[in-house]
Amino acid sequence: DPMEGGAFLSGEDDRVYLLQRFNMSLEQSYILSLSKSIEIDWLQSVNTFSTTLAQLEDDNENFVTRSIQPFFYLYTQQNFVVGSLFRQYASASFQSNRQDGNYLRKHQGFVNTEVEKKLWRDKVKVNLEVNDMFYTMRADGEYQIGETYIRYGNQWNSRTFRISLTFDLGQFQKGRFKNKGISDSEIRRAN
């Protein structure tokens, strides 16, 4: 059986919560996903749209049941060249509110970008990368177990800035191997 967890009041003190895992009787998901890739001279693009209807059932009636609603997920990744100046990478994602019968997980998304510039006959590469530009990746939602209503809202430390400098020092030289004739005598002996 699928496992889900939750917090509920201990009953003795309004400030004490117990965390407990529960066996769920059923977990079903129906997924429809569409993807489209585009490639032209200056652009490479991958785009995905998915919609999911997820159902989570609790026969023990630990959770207060919510209505089940489909949610959707959008993802795009772009890679394009801006003349001979630089290459730009961008990706973005968005997931709508997800309601599976027990939990409501609020919408979330991200936007990432990277700029890459090659210098000195492509021997040096400079990258500037920014992840989660608008600081929108988070765990946010609500659920209810018995009389206990839980509302949570956490933000992850997902925003990062990175600068990298890469040097290409050339290719390895091919090594010279001189055959001493040992293998030839072994081949003659085996025949």
How is the secondary structure organized here?
Blueprint: E1 3-9, E2 17-23, E3 26-40, E4 43-57, E5 68-69, E6 71-82, E7 86-95, E8 98-100, E9 104-105, E10 108-119, E11 124-131, E12 138-145, E13 148-155, E14 160-167, H1 182-190
Antiparallel strand pairs: 1-2, 3-4, 4-6, 5-8, 6-7, 7-10, 8-9, 9-12, 10-11, 11-14, 12-13
Detailed description of the structure:
This protein is mainly beta and 191 residues long. The chain has a seven-stranded antiparallel β-sheet, with no helix packed on it. The longest helix is centred in the last third of the chain and has 9 residues. It is elongated, with a radius of gyration of 28 Å. The relative contact order is 0.14.
How many strands in all? 14
| Rg (C-alpha, Å) | 28 Å
Q: Rough shape?
A: elongated
Tally of helical runs:
1
Main β sheet profile: 7 strands, antiparallel
Mean pLDDT: 83
Task: Name the structural class.
Answer: mainly beta
- Strand proportion, as a percent range, falls in over 45%
Low-pLDDT stretches = none
Helicity range of the residues?
A: under 10%
Please state the oligomeric state of the protein chains shown.
single chain
Determine the N-to-C terminus distance: 64 Å
Query: How are helices and strands ordered from N to C?
Result: EEEEEEEEEEEEEEH
Widest sheet: strand ordering = 3-4-6-7-10-11-14
